[in-house]
Amino acid sequence: MRPQHAGQPGLGPRAEPETAEPFLPPSGALTRPAGNEPRTAPPQSGPGRHGNARGSRVLAMNVRVARGAWARGCGAWNFPRPPPGAVDVAELLRDAAVEEPRAAAARRLPGQCSVLLFPGQGSQVVGMGRGLLRYPRVRELYAAARRVLGYDLLELSLRGPQEALDRTAHCQPAVFVASLAAVEKLHHLQPAVIENCVAAAGFSVGEFAALVFAGAMEFSEGLYAVKVRAEAMQEASEAAPSGMLSVLGRPQSKFSFACLEAREHCKAAGIESPVCEVANYLFPDCRVISGHLEALQFLQKNSSKYHFRRTKMLPVSGAFHTRLMEPAMEPLAQVLKAIDVKKPLVSVHSNVNGNKYMHPKHIQKLLVQQVVSPVKWEQTMHAIYERRKGTEFPRTFEVGPGKQLGTILKNCNLQAWKAYSPVEAMEAEDTDQDL
Predict the structure, then answer these.
(1) Domain named Malonyl-CoA:ACP transacylase (MAT): which ranges (predicted)?
(2) What is the mean pLDDT of residues 398-427?
């Protein structure tokens, strides 16, 4: 029987601030025992640990398996349990997948389906999440995040400062959690959207949020992977002056040729092995180019030569999705090897090639490759929304801060965009008395 959406038991009083030590994997890497060996938790101390009444109320976003497996997972990882009796997003997806054939057939009607899009780094802004705190379990998400990260992500998201929030090590976890908190809002207001979801995609770090939403990994596991990814990318970005340049071109723009000449300019300036390449395919004639700052400045100065209509430096600290991020690959790979990744409950599309994931090993491999590969978002949009003429488009919801993915969708597929709605993470009427 499908869980009831109305009249759910409340979660009790507002969660108190977490005082527990942050979750840290044993020996610097996540490990699981092999075979049927008993699972043991790493040494622990302090309040708020497994078995603590407050910790038991903290939400782990995804219940991918039965409660017994949750108990085993908590024992191995010290991840918080889901609140008793709570209806979980992944449970709704799983129930929808095994429902009776007639209901499943109705769910597949294009006009009744939904697609969720998860934003990436660059969408962060001080105050994000403020409009979500009134919804069930959002505070518990942030309390769980505090345990995993070791700092108060909610405080940083709400009050900044912006410079600290913009740091790669901070903004990637912040966007990840804010996006899944927006899913909680959508689940509370329109549960049918969650049940009728047929596909999800996330931009760069947003892909991790999409996979957690789809049940491929648990919230705390996904967040820890994002933490490791963000810190490794932050460190890699500090090795050389680099960045990302948004370029709006024309049909005659030759992005590859422009990047080639920018690299030649850098070589002449004494930069060894310069990097300048397309890092994001957004929509027709719009690209983001990553590389050494010298190369990006060269492109800006010579924009008319390459028929660029507009260029803008992005507020990021490095040349993401290029080989300058290679040092970040191994730390992320080690974490992902230890995570029990599962097949998503709905289609999740990879940034690397735009195709949907078919196997858990596929997820682990491509998430690492994504760090040094261009984000093929335009190709992803075509893969998700391709359909026969006259077929209705699914409803699309952008879950997380900002509306950038909606703007991109409008330029990729105007008809699909007409069924687009953002799930706001900020609301002007919210005040600090809600906190």
Answers:
(1) 117-426
(2) 93
Give the Cα separation of 26 and 31 in Å (integer): 7
Annotated catalytic residue 204: yes
Query: Measured between alpha carbons, how far is 302 from 53 in angstroms, rounded to an integer?
Result: 62
Domain with CATH 3.40.366.10 in the chain: 49-235+328-434
Check residue 68 and give its pLDDT: 31
pTM above 0.85, yes or no: no
Token duo for residue 333: 């790979």
Fold of 49-235+328-434: Malonyl-Coenzyme A Acyl Carrier Protein; domain 2 (3.40.366)
Q: Among the options 187, 292, 321, 349, which is catalytic?
A: 321
Nearest to 240 by CA among 172, 283, 292: 292
- Three-class DSSP category at 151: coil
CATH 3.10.20.30 fits 239-316, yes or no: no
Q: Give the whole-angstrom CA distance, residue 317 versus residue 322.
A: 13
Choose the weakest-confidence range: 85-89, 235-239, 308-312, 342-346: 85-89
CB 224 within 8 A of CB 177: no
Q: What is the mean pLDDT of the chain?
A: 80
Instruction: Determine whether 321 is an active site residue.
Output: yes
**Average pLDDT score over residue span 44-58:** 34
Radius of gyration over every alpha carbon of the chain, rounded to an integer in angstroms: 22
Among the options 114, 204, 220, 347, which is catalytic? 204
Beta strand extents in 80-177 (DSSP E only): 114-118
